[in-house]
Amino acid sequence: MAALKIPEFCGDLTETIKMQAQKRNQPDEINNLVQRVQNEDREAFMVLTQLYQRKVFQLAYSYFHNREDAMDIVQETFLRFYQKAHMFQKGKNFQNWLLQIAKNICIDYYRKHHKRDNEWRRDENIEKVRTPSNESSHHDPSSDIKDIFSRCLVKLSDKQRMIFVMKHYNHLHYSEIASILNIALGTVKSLHFKAVRNLRTLMSPYMGRMG
Amino acid sequence: MRNCKKTKRDLVAFLYNECNEIDKKQMEAHLETCQECKQELLELREVYEAADTLNADMEKALASVEWENFPAQIASVLDKDPTRYRQPRRAGFWTFLFQPRFRLAYAGLLLGIVVGSVVTFLIFRSPPLQIAEDGRIIAPQGFYDMMELEMARRETIDYLDRSEYLLLDFVQSSPEKSVEFWQTEHASRRAMDLLSKKKYIDPQLDKIKLAKAKFICDQIEFLFFELMQISDDLAAEELKKIQRLIQERQLLLKIKLVRKELQKSEV
Description:
The complex is a heterodimer of chains A (211) and B (267). Chain A has ten helices and no strands. Chain A has 211 residues and is mainly alpha-helical. Chain A folds into two domains: 21-123, Orthogonal Bundle (Rna Polymerase Sigma Factor, Chain: A), CATH 1.10.1740.10; 140-211, Winged helix-like DNA-binding domain superfamily/Winged helix DNA-binding domain (Arc Repressor Mutant, subunit A). In chain B, 75% of the residues lie in helices and 1% in strands. Chain B has helices spanning 4-15, 21-33, 35-52, 55-64, 70-80, 93-97, 103-124, 141-172, 175-183, 185-205, 211-230, 236-248, 251-264; strands spanning 130-131, 137-138. The two termini of chain B are 90 Å apart.
């Protein structure tokens, strides 16, 4: 995936760190880096940030559909990681642990900043959204689907929405989602099923028009 | 062959490629034949495709961030407020002791202590009073000690009672008759009885709790002993003197007081 590709490192990172970063797929290396962060090693922290910032961004962006919010989440996630690095248990999957932090921050952030926005939005009729029938004909239909879909997505419960986002946009496996959300695999499966089915129900009045 | 209910339940997992190979093949086979499930899959796929419309935005947003500089930017926030983001100090002894992963061990330890103390209590508690088959009472040592003390108390009260009556009789008798009084069979036998009884309760009086009673009992004993020994030879004058002495020293009152005290204090 694109997010995993390591871009050019900024100049102040040493060669050794580069080498370590390239072996990122080895859990031992990641553990090593986390251990160094536990000892307040800034360089190791920056390497880990470099490696995982896109993953966190993707999760946050797909949850909020807003670049600025997503950037805030990424920053907050890594700061929290730095603070809580000592709580990482060796042998656990670092990415899952980090995404767990990101997920918690997303939910807190959403409750703090967006809950109220969305409460009135929820009451707002989706009919008001532009549809090809009441808009000029040159309008791009895919942007309508996008609009409708993002409004429907907000209507899902926090958990269903998070699972849908993790599955669809972050391409995480059910087992990874289960580990991040700390719930059973079967629960993830059934919540994902419910999320998709609910989305279909919410979108069904517009399905015909969108095609 | 799969039924529709099971297939519909797994459609989302199928759509997202989360089915294992066997399930996948079975689903495909079912979808070949079942129009209804196929239709449902198509509808779900529409949702999937609608969700995909947001991908382009995400790619755009992803591309718009300068990722190379971002880690340094975050690190600079750390530098701005180093105290806030400082790693907590290495766990000390107490933190080590109270870490959550020892929860189970501590719970077990606590349970062990509780169970242990209950068992110890059950084993070592004094057994209740039991009557053996041959009629003997089996009781702990403490019970016998208490019984003994109670017996001593009762005996002492009885002794004091009887001494009081005898002394009362003696004190109230007229000076002329007091000589005869001690010569009568009745009085001397009572005095003798009391002297022998005193010998019997003596060892019990040695116990601390009865020290006061012992003191007065000793006095009474001494008095009777003297009276029995010498009353025959005593003149009426002397006996009168003794009578007065008893009254002066308020011996009777003292006896009464000690008796009352003994009666009150249930041992």
